[in-house]
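Format notes (please read before filing issues)

Several people have asked whether sequences and C-alpha cells are stored in separate files. They are not. Every record keeps both together, in the order shown below: the sequence lines, then the C-alpha cell lines. Line labels are part of the format and must not be stripped during preprocessing.
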Amino acid sequence: MASNELAQGMEQNTISLLFGHPDSATLSTPELRDAMQRIISSPQGYTALQYGPEQGTPGLINFLVEKINREQSLSIQPGNLMVVAGSTHAVDMLARLFVEPGAVVLVEAPTYADSIHTFQDHRIELCSIHMDENGLIPRALEKQLARLHASGKVPSMLYTIPNFHNPTGSTLSETRRSEIIKLAHQYDFLIVEDDVYRDLSFEGSVPASFYALANGKQVVSIGSFSKTLAPGLRLGWLLGSEDVVQCCINCGTTQMGGGANPLVAHIVAEYCRSGSWEAHISRLQSLYKLRRDVALSALSQYMPSDVRWTHPAGGFFIWLSLPENVFAQHVKHMALQAGVSLAAGVGFFVDPFAGAHNLRLAYSCATPNDIDSGIRILAQVIDKSRNVER
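Then the structure lines:
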C-alpha cells in the first residue's frame, strides 16, 4: 500500500500509538455493506441522494432518540436532537453560534487538541481548568470562575470530555458532574459534553451524563459514529434543548447544506434498525479492553519506576507523566527514530509548556503484539533520553 493511502497518522514500518483511530478491521463489516446495498438499491436511494431535512434524516433521529432514552432513562423528543457531520462539526457550530469572538470558553487542561484548534479559529479566549487522575476538578473550576468574574469576564461555555477522556482516559464521577452543573447554573454558562467514547466502556456502568443530571438545562451533548462504526462516515449527533437545536438548524451553513450527509445517514439508520450497531459495539468493547489490558501490562513490565500513567475504564487512551528530567518532545522524536509514533503532551494544552512531561498512548489501532513491542521500545527510549544532552 502506498504511504498516501494509509490512514491519517499511520506510517509504513512504524508501530503507531499516535492517533485514536478505530481498528481498520472493524470498519467494513458485512452488516454495514448490506445496509449500503439495501439503501442504494431501493426506491429510498433516490431520496437519500437528494438534499435532506436540515435537522437530519428522520429515521436516524428516531433511532437515536429511542436508544438514548432507553440507555439514559431520559424522555427526550426528536426536537432535542439533530444529525451532524461528526463531533468536530458540532463543536465548530456551537463555538460559532453561542460564543462571541473574544469571549471566554473554559476547557480542561489537558483537552482534545483539535477542539483547542477549532476554538482558536473562532478567535475565542480559552481558559484552562486543572484536572487530576479523576478528571476535571470542580474546586479549580470554581476558583477560575471567581477570578474571571472579578475581572469582568463572563465565560460562555465549558467544553468537557467526561467519559474516557481524550487524552487522559479519565472518567468524571457523578458527584463531580453534579458540582459542575451547580456552577453552570450559578455562573450561567453552557456545558458542552463531548461524549463520543461513551459506548466504549470496559468496566461497569458509565456515570449519568451531564445532560441527564441537568435534565437538559444548559447542557449540550455530542455523540458520534466515528469511534463505534467508522470515522469515514462523518456522522454524529447533537443533543440539547429544543431552542439550542433549532438555533443550530436555522444557522446559515445548515440551511445551505440540506442536512448532514443524507446518504450516509440513511445507510446508518438502516444498519442501526437491524440491531447491528449495538452488537458491533459489544464486540468493540471486548477488542479494545484486551488492547487496554495489554498496554497496562506492558507499562507495568517495562516502564521505569518514576513514570506514571492513567488506568482508563474505557476509550482509546492512556496518559503518561514523565519525570522532570525527561521531556516529551525529545522522547517522541527518539521513539519515532526507533519505529514508534506517539503524541507529545504539548498539543493538548492551551499553554503548551504545561504538557512538556506528558505523552498520550493510543492503543486502539495497534495489534496486541505491536502494543507490547511499542511500549517496550518506548521505555528504552525514556531511559536513554535522561542521558542525552539537550
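For reference, the curators noted about this record: The domain at 3-20+278-385 is CATH 3.90.1150.10 (Aspartate Aminotransferase, domain 1). The chain has a mean pLDDT of 94.
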